[in-house]
Description:
Blueprint (H helix, E strand, L loop, with lengths): L4 E6 L10 H9 L2 E5 H4 L9 E5 L4 H13 L3 E6 L8 H11 L9 E4 L4 H9 E2 L5 E5 L7 H13 L3 E5 L9 H9 L8 E6 L7 E6 L12 E5 L5 E3 L7 E3 L9
Parallel strand pairs: 1-4, 1-5, 2-3, 2-4, 6-13, 7-8
Antiparallel strand pairs: 8-11, 9-10, 9-11, 12-13
Helix pairs in contact: 3-4, 6-7
The structure holds S-adenosyl-L-homocysteine (SAH).
The site of S-adenosyl-L-homocysteine (SAH) has 25 residues, from helix 5, strand 9 and strand 11.
Amino acid sequence: MDGGWLAVVGLGPGDAAMQTPQATTALAAATDLVGYMTYLDRVPHRPGQTRHASDNRVELDRARHALDLAAAGARVAVVSSGDPGVFAMASAVFEAIEHGPAGWRALDVQVVPGLSAMFAAAARLGAPLGADFCAISLSDNLKPWPLVLHRLTAAAGAGFVVALYNAASRARPWQLGAALDALRPVLPPGTPVVFATAVSRAEEALLVTTLADADPARADMRTLVLVGTAATRRIERPDGRPWLYAPRSHPAAS
Ligand code: SAH
């Protein structure tokens, strides 16, 4: 029974160079890899390692399975894209521990952080998250849609830049359009909106537009949408790709 552990590992946004050495070490030391198959595909194969690929919607089952394996002595890496604590597997693991057998609380469990999509996207754009910001998942699979809208309009109304995760998917085609419509009475029409798709991967695409012109059809399940504020600055550049940044001080501070 000795020697088992569980690491919830963040793979970063896609580019292997954006994965931390700590994550690489944990993946190499694991006897078992658990995760959504698309993410497992990003981990190089190693002889002797067992892969437990699953569908994206069974996070709690996957977490329990991983804990069972670790309790039986396996060295288990549960993989997530980006950071495992941001709309990803780490919450499912702790939910499983809280409601699971008492023995799971004594397990060696570690969260290995990763570079979340919002930071990878922000780095491409300049410094749009340089002042107060928040992250909201637009998925209404696990929370009611009116709550999503309430948080979004409250955050935007309070001057937070908002990073929207899970902006769109085939199963959730209308939510982003409804979210942008809810923001239009709250923010000026010229507020910068960014569609950052597949950042750091071969298909990377970045579109910087405004709230007035934002077309929700530009987002798919690989897209992070960033909604700026009235204070977000835009610096035009000769190649047509502007920098966005958040000024360090609020106008009221001087
Ligand atoms: N744990 C992940 C987020 C998982 S939720 C993280 O920290 O990044 C999945 C959502 O993350 C996607 O729908 C998309 O909104 C965003 N996302 C993940 N990888 C991305 C990437 N490379 N580029 C842009 N958005 C990404």
